[in-house]
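User: Can you predict the 3D structure of Molybdopterin-dependent oxidoreductase? Sequence below.
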Amino acid sequence: MRTAFDLVRRAAASPARHPRVAVVLGRLLGIGFLVCFGTGLYSHLLQDPLPWMTFPTRPSWLYRVTQGMHNAVGTALIPLLLAKLWTVQPLLFQWPPVKGVRGFLERALIALLVAAALVELAIGLMNTFQWYPWTFRFRQTHFALAWAIIGALAIHIGVKLPVIVRWWRRRDSLDADGALLVPREGEGELGRPRPTARGLTGAIQRRLDGGPTPPSTVSRRAVLGATGAASAVLVATTAGQTTPALAPLNAFAPRRLRYGPQGLPVNRTAAEARVRESAQDPSWTLRVAGADGERVFSRADLLALPQHSSSLPIACVEGWSTQASWRGVRVADLLELVGSAGREVVVRSFAAGAYSTVLLGPEFARDPLTLVALELNGETLHLDHGYPARLIAPARPGVLQTKWLAALEAR
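Assistant: Sure. Here are the predicted structure tokens for Molybdopterin-dependent oxidoreductase:
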């Protein structure tokens, strides 16, 4: 068994599989996962706020930026994570596999961290394509895995801190003559310098069986450069669905800027929501309820009220966003008509689904940019964009910008 493990480790010997490379990739992964965790937590709390929470409504493009960062950084993490696993691959074949209780716990923690990170990035990528080949609920699972990753990552950094500190800077990897130092068997210990990649590979090989090994053609710089290039290419070819400057390079993203009815993509059409007949029913009305009772407005009634325009992005959790011009009645004006200005509002749609009922916090309800939109980009609201009326508010996820409105209930 030991011979088999040694053969695998022998084949994996490479100067690129060096603690310095692992530390560089590890700190990039740590920063990336922290950015994704922070932006993801913000998105989650917007959708499920705690009772005491309020959120900024300015700048109006805030959610567009945070969710765009979440998806772009998450995409960039895929090559980084694969490169990090490649770098530390020989450690998976040490013999004996587990050395004591501490070794078992450390390996179990690493297994949890790696498994959670791989699943998190995979299902996040599939979510951008709205492909869900599973039965569990995506958002809740994605959120739970994020906490598992951050917790495991914090403990892993604490355990590996001596190694991280020793190999943190580039000069820590070199001796006084600028030669690369070879790590010994042991955490963070330095061996004697080897001036060439061939010498480093040979040193690793001699610790395994004392025999020669062919020179590696993969250097540390090549691995880091290729990983950085892969991440950059993935971001550049997918971020065009939210970043106009990258739109010409948008080769792999599932959506494109200004593509769709009235120049906006559509996640869920009226046909998919099964509301085509209800949305086009001439008897449709919007019910607005508040402290002074309730009022019912037809579309003609809404058009007769003072109309206002807002230039706001529609930004979705899948990572796409587009700026648009909306026109309609301010929610604050409608709430004032029922004596509930500035109150929290329950927003109801006549389309069934997970977001058929959402909460509109008072900070959004009183914002003058928040509208019951009747027009989009100078035209009557398209059926797939929520005709006869939809909600639009600044700095909110697209799933909370309710289409096919039925009621606004202040409380």
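The domain at 263-410 is CATH 3.90.420.10 (Sulfite Oxidase; Chain A, domain 2). The two ends are 69 Å apart (CA to CA).
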